[in-house]
Amino acid sequence: MANMGADTGTTGTQRVSNRSILVLCLVFFFAMIGMAYAAVPLYTLFCRVTGYNGTTQRVEQYSDVILDKTINVTFDANTSNGLNWDFRPVDKMVKPKIGETVQVMFKATNRSPVPTTGTAVFNVTPMEAGAYFNKVECFCFTETTLQPGETLEMPVVFFVDPEIVNARETRNIHTLTLSYTFYPAKTEKPVASLPAKTEAGASKL
Known about the structure:
Blueprint: H1 2-50, E1 57-58, E2 72-79, E3 85-89, E4 93-94, E5 102-110, E6 116-125, E7 133-138, E8 144-146, E9 151-160, E10 175-184, E11 196-197, E12 203-204
Parallel strand pairs: 1-7, 2-10
Antiparallel strand pairs: 2-4, 3-5, 5-9, 6-8, 6-10, 7-9, 11-12
């Protein structure tokens, strides 16, 4: 009888242990899901703070130091396959002094027959220079909506941080490239789902 009691106690202990392992596995599983969802915004924040992967910096004020040294800044503009826009820089290159605040313009034209909204992603190459490329104003901070056939000129106001000449990994860089790619905004309806007009003017799906 004593042995039976010992066996019953052992079985109960095993059940408690198995239940604890199951709970720990579930906690770990849901923690991993939470980390996966948080990874993208955390990575984006990390890039913006550090300039990692060529991410530029957003600032609220102009530089108060201007060096007697210039740097070439070239511009690249692209659109994804899902956005029927013509998008390009007005000037392909500028040569500001380091620390000088500069405004350049980009131009976008909606070539589709419906209003469309785009959002721009960007980076700077060489990637090491991203932390020293400071934007004061940029169309990439908000979504852009264009009516059919509409053309819009969009400003970018920036300066290159004078500290770029002191950092070992960037002091020999003489040319930066600011690159943009416009994508359809997440709130944008696919063109195929928009109602089409019949000849009589009535809408149909």
